[in-house]
């Protein structure tokens, strides 16, 4: 199984678990232990996890290719330094390119957040509304609310990811942090 496929499946499982956790918490909070789980919402979050993780894997690799955090060391240089070529950590130089980190952060927290959160709003509303114009209306109404909320958490996660996590593992790290974020998104999506 490829790394991307594993990441996509793990992300979908984490988003599904976060949605179930939020629904159970909502049941507990309202003292309504007999209300049923909204399995359609669980399915929507699973689909969102599959689509968003696939998009984000490509996005993270694109950002790293365009704006590497550290300069690459050639395979020749890696051999000279007695380090195996192809090793993620060994192909990285030591000095951080802060301008590239800043460029990735700005792109990720503007274009990236817009695309990922639009994907969320579409995935969690398309089956319920069954009308492209109604889904677009929900996106228009909620996208900036979700993005402004995201700016309180995701810039910090992105900086840590860009500095210390290899590009191919960033989506999984974000998915783990996203467990809590997806509980928040569940509550947002449950609002009428």
UniProtKB/TrEMBL annotation:
Locations listed in the record: Membrane
Main localization, broad class: membrane
A single Gene Ontology CC term: peroxisomal membrane
InterPro entries: Mpv17_PMP22 (IPR007248)
Coiled coil spans: none
Membrane topology: Multi-pass membrane protein
Keyword annotations: Membrane, Transmembrane, Transmembrane helix
Transmembrane portions of the chain: 171-190
Record keyword Transmembrane present: yes
Family: Belongs to the peroxisomal membrane protein PXMP2/4 family.
Name this protein carries in UniProt: Related to glomerulosclerosis protein Mpv17
Organism, as annotated: Cephalotrichum gorgonifer
């Amino acid at each position: 199984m490829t790394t991307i496929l594993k990441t996509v499946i793990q992300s979908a499982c984490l988003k599904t678990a976060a949605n179930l956790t939020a629904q159970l918490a909502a049941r507990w909070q309202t003292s309504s232990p007999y209300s049923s789980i909204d399995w359609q919402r669980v399915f929507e979050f699973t689909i969102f996890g599959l689509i968003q993780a696939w998009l984000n894997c490509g996005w993270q690799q694109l950002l790293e290719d365009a704006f590497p955090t550290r300069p690459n060391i050639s395979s020749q240089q890696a051999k000279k330094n007695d380090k195996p070529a192809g090793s993620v950590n060994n192909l990285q130089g030591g000095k951080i390119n802060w301008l590239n980190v800043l460029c990735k952060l700005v792109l990720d927290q503007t274009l990236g957040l817009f695309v990922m959160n639009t994907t969320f709003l579409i995935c969690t509303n398309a089956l319920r509304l069954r009308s492209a114009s109604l889904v677009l209306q929900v996106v228009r109404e909620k996208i900036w609310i979700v993005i402004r909320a995201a700016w309180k958490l995701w810039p910090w996660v992105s900086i840590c990811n860009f500095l210390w996590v290899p590009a191919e593992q960033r989506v999984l790290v974000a998915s783990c942090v996203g467990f809590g974020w997806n509980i928040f998104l569940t509550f947002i999506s449950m609002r009428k």
